[in-house]
What we know:
The chain is mostly helical. The chain has three helices and no strands. Helix 1 crosses helix 2.
Amino acid sequence: MSVTTAIAIYFILWWVVLFTVLPWGVRSQHESEEPMAPGTDPGAPVRHRIGRTLVWTTIVTTAVFGAVWIVLATGLIPADLLMEGPSRRY
Length: 90
């Protein structure tokens, strides 16, 4: 796997994991005991904590990417098999 391909895969995985991690630990204004801010939706989060979300996204993405890298590097799933089109029948 070339460096460019590895960076592209990591980038795509990072965005997918970001949307998976976004709801972790979020409490809405409706669930909170604090008063709701006027003019906001009751489902809006009390605290955004985007920094924590970005750190967790990077940690989880690195673990997933490491697993993908190991699988491809050890040949458990050959890269050539992934590049073949759907015309191959088993």
